[in-house]
């Protein structure tokens, strides 16, 4: 059994793929398996995967019909045999010692999940660390679930982590939605007794200007509200002491999506979009009194309670100025 199975969904990335695979196969931890999932890529990515597999017997290639990122990851999970599971997006790359460090941290701390900081490469080629802190932290399950909401250290991303394979026994990526990482992150973390985080940036993320969340508004973006709504219900049932922070996220996303959707020429009218603004008023009032909510968060909710149209108008102005 290899120490780590590293799953790489591959689709239309021939210009970046070699750099990604090289960074994984040259890891200081050599006891790994690399599962390249060619998700029906129309370019030469599939052939590149096969070429690497011929040269390195740790590499396995799956060729499948295009089904999206979640489908490709799930296909990799079906055949993975490692003690831990890792994921790398095929236009990103990793530090040469990343998996050795994560595995060592996981084993020494008896952690089912080990994570590292992420370095984001912008369009200008400059790097920025996702977390500006410098502390390594061992989280309990409850502490990790609260930290996850902030999306700074642990982050919703699947790619800066290794997971004990048993965590996926009854858990798979949802293939019908966007924000698949957010949707599964808290479900996996909820099964872990310990999560170790190192502030060392070892996963290098390439800014993707074509992300669906950055494109002109389309109906798939409404998935974001559904995903965060499910997350809120999960926290409200199991972690009620921090659920208010998720509710605030849900409220802000609802307002933002409403503004974006009503600014488009899609076949959507305001009545169809009112569900984005329908959080329970009593719960929103509680947010304005919560010690866990920031002052700016309380102001935003307070404005909405005073006048939804005022809050929506200010959101439109803010987005316009940001552009």
UniProtKB/TrEMBL annotation:
<keyword id="KW-0808">Transferase</keyword>
<feature type="domain" description="Glycosyltransferase 2-like">
    <location>
        <begin position="5"/>
        <end position="169"/>
    </location>
</feature>
<dbReference type="GO" id="GO:0016757">
    <property type="term" value="F:glycosyltransferase activity"/>
</dbReference>
<dbReference type="Pfam" id="PF00535">
    <property type="entry name" value="Glycos_transf_2"/>
</dbReference>
<dbReference type="InterPro" id="IPR029044">
    <property type="entry name" value="Nucleotide-diphossugar_trans"/>
</dbReference>
<keyword id="KW-0328">Glycosyltransferase</keyword>
<protein>
    <submittedName>
        <fullName>Glycosyl transferase family 2</fullName>
    </submittedName>
</protein>
<dbReference type="InterPro" id="IPR001173">
    <property type="entry name" value="Glyco_trans_2-like"/>
</dbReference>
């Amino acid at each position: 059994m290899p120490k780590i199975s590293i799953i790489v969904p591959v689709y239309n990335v021939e210009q970046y793929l070699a750099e990604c695979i090289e960074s994984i196969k040259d890891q200081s931890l050599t006891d790994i398996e690399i599962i390249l999932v060619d998700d029906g890529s129309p370019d030469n990515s599939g052939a590149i995967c096969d070429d690497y597999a011929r040269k390195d017997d740790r590499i396995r290639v799956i060729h499948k019909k295009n089904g999206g990122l979640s489908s490709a990851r799930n296909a990799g999970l079906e055949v993975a045999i490692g003690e831990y599971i890792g994921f790398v997006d095929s236009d990103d790359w990793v530090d040469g010692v990343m998996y050795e460090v994560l595995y060592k941290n996981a084993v020494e701390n008896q952690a089912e999940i080990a994570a590292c900081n992420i370095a984001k490469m912008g369009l200008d080629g400059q790097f920025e660390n996702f977390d500006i802190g410098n502390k390594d932290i061992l989280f309990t399950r409850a502490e990790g679930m609260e930290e996850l909401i902030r999306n700074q250290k642990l982050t919703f991303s699947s790619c800066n982590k290794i997971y004990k394979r048993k965590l996926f026994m009854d858990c798979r990526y949802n293939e019908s939605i966007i924000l698949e990482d957010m949707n599964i992150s808290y479900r996996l973390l909820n099964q872990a007794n310990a999560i170790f985080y190192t502030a060392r940036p070892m996963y290098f993320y390439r800014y993707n200007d074509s992300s669906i969340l950055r494109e002109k508004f389309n109906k798939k973006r409404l998935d974001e509200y559904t995903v965060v709504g499910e997350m809120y219900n999960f926290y409200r049932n199991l972690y009620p002491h921090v659920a208010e922070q998720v509710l605030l996220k849900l409220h802000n996303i609802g307002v933002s999506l409403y503004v974006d959707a009503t600014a488009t020429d899609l076949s959507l009218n305001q009545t169809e979009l009112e569900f984005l603004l329908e959080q329970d008023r009593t719960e929103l009032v509680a947010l304005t009194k919560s010690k866990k909510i920031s002052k700016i968060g309380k102001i935003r909710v307070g404005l909405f309670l005073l006048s939804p149209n005022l809050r929506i108008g200010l959101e439109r102005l803010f987005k316009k100025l940001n552009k």
